[in-house]
Amino acid sequence: MDRQQTFSWDEAISGAPLPPLVDPPGGIPHEHPLVHCYRAYGPIFRTQGAGSEPQTILAGPEANVFMARHEDEFFTTREHWQQFDAVISQGSESSLTAARDGEANRQRRARSSREWSRARVLDQLEQLTQITTEYMQRWQPGARIAVHNQFRRIVAEQLGRLLVGVSPGEYLDDFVIYLNTAIANTLTTGSREQAPGLDAPAYQRAAERVNEFGRLAYEAHLSHPQPNGKPDMIDEAMQATAQYPESYRQAILSKVALGPMLAGIDTVANSLTFMLYALLAHPEAGKRVQAEVEIAFQNGPLSRETLQQMPALNGAMRETLRRYPVAGGHLCRVARPLTINGYRLDPGTDVYVAMTVPHFLEEYYPNPLQFDIDRFQQPRNEHRSPGVFAPFGLGNHTCLGAGIAEVQLQVTMATLLHSRTFHLDPPDYQLSIEEHPTPVPANFFVTSSPTLRHSHS
User: Fold this and answer.
1) Angle at the Cα of 320 (from 314 to 323), degrees rounded to 5?
2) Which range among 23-32, 46-55, 272-281, 403-412 shows the weakest confidence by mean pLDDT?
3) Three-state SS across 207-265?
4) Given CB 3.0 to 4.6 Å as the disulfide criterion, which of 7, 106, 244, 322 pairs with 249?
5) How would you classify residue 165: left for phi > 0, otherwise alpha for psi between -120 and 50, otherwise beta?
6) Average pLDDT over residues 320-343
7) 1 pLDDT exceeds 50?
8) CA 178 → CA 149, 304, 323, 392, distances in Å?
9) Using CA atoms, how far apart are residues 217 and 220, in angstroms rounded to an integer?
10) pLDDT value for 184
């Protein structure tokens, strides 16, 4: 029987036991696998993972609130990202690793908040629409098009042209190889056997090409600053580093060009794929969003005011992020001893914060497996309870680009639905999900205008 969980914590209680070791039930489609453990054992427990040591889990809205407020006091994330940061920085000392926690992280986020604000793209909505339309015009009637692959290309073009003023073009495949290989070799364990190593020729070539893109983007700004008519990320970084020696400056600015591509191409493309699938699998919601989109475009190009007046589109986006969050949780390590609900956490213990467990709790989201785009409107506002909605992370570890991603999701989906009518084929097609290490659509479903079909990737 469901029960209200309690949550208490202290810096340390002498003699406190370890959290209970539990055996999670088998996989439940489209539900967080740890919901039932949270129901039975509360906000802290351990499970036996793939390794030799049990995995400590924190879950539930109270745990989310606690971590959002106190994670930097008691936990560190740098150990889990250190290897990835070293690979991405290609052997140089990564300042990002040192700034992943505590005051250094807060200062980094304060410096970057404007850089990654949704305001960066809100005055470029017409360009977002145009880029999406350009790619859709390549979709010939009757042609079969892999949706996830095409969304990745649209998203990459949006990020490249609007944030750093350069089209990724033929470099996109190199970014995909570069990023996915780095992730598989540094952040995950289950996929390493199938993933190429960092010494693989394909990865080495991709790394060279990615660096070439960054160098060319910097050189393009030397010749033609502000390609979008206003300072982009590279323009602003050039101004901030004007006093640096040229060789050092070039190295920094070439990396700036890579940031948006590495941060957004897969996460936004994944969410777009999930969103389109959800609207097609739930046609009543899809019809409402499409009708709202048609009215919006009849009144002219999309604007920030128009987006604010589209509750169905906004609700579909948020419901997609609830049902198919960008990440199910994140890893951290105990830095200072503490006790949660009477169970001790010792320094050095790795903890998985299952931050999206509340997305599937019926006391906050009635019928949580139902795709309901009205959850986020007055008077319901189901996502407003503290700690129950965390698709982009928690506290000082929330994704800096979340606002940009939300704008991309709304504008791209609105443009898609304004121009085409899609159908699932077969009508009962079920999208499966894999973890790499974040949720990814495992199967491509493929468009054949005006219908949608699927094929295995």
Assistant:
1) 140
2) 23-32
3) HHHHHHHHHHHHHHHHHCCCCCCCCCHHHHHHHHCCCCCHHHHHHHHHHHCCHHHHHHH
4) 244
5) left
6) 93
7) no
8) 16, 34, 28, 23
9) 5
10) 85
What's the gap between Cα 275 and its chain centre?
A: 13
Q: How far is CA 74 from the centre of its chain?
A: 25
Structure-token pair, residue 34:
């740890």
Average pLDDT of every residue of the chain: 87
Residue pair 276/147 in contact (Cβ under 8 Å)? The answer is yes
More confident residue, 434 or 181: 181
Alpha-carbon distance of 17 to 192, in angstroms, equals 34
DSSP 90: T
Q: What are phi and psi of 391, to 5 degrees?
A: -70, -20
| Residue 196 to residue 426: CA distance in whole angstroms | 34
Tens of pLDDT, residues 50-97: 667 899 999 999 999 999 999 999 999 888 888 888 888 775 545 666
Q: Could you tell me the pTM of the whole model?
A: 0.91
Residue 129, Cβ neighbours under 10 Å: how many? Answer: 19
Q: Which two tokens stand for residue 24?
A: 């999670």
425, β-bridge pairs: 453
Separation of first and last alpha carbons in the chain: 40
Q: What are 443's strand-pairing partners? A: 456
pLDDT at 268 over 90: yes
Q: Report pLDDT for 396.
A: 86
C-alpha span between 348 and 56 (Å, rounded): 12
| Other Cβ atoms within 10 Å of 37 Cβ, number | 22
Which burial class, exposed, middle or buried, applies to 243 when counting CB atoms under 10 A from its CB (0-12, 13-18, 19+)? exposed
Give Cβ neighbours of residue 377 (< 8 Å, ≥ 6 apart): 311, 315
Determine the Cα–Cα distance for residues 79 and 41; give it in Å rounded to an integer: 28
396-432 exposure pattern, b = at least 16 Cβ within 10 A, e = fewer: bbebbbbbbbbbbbbbbbbbbbbbeebebeeeeeebe
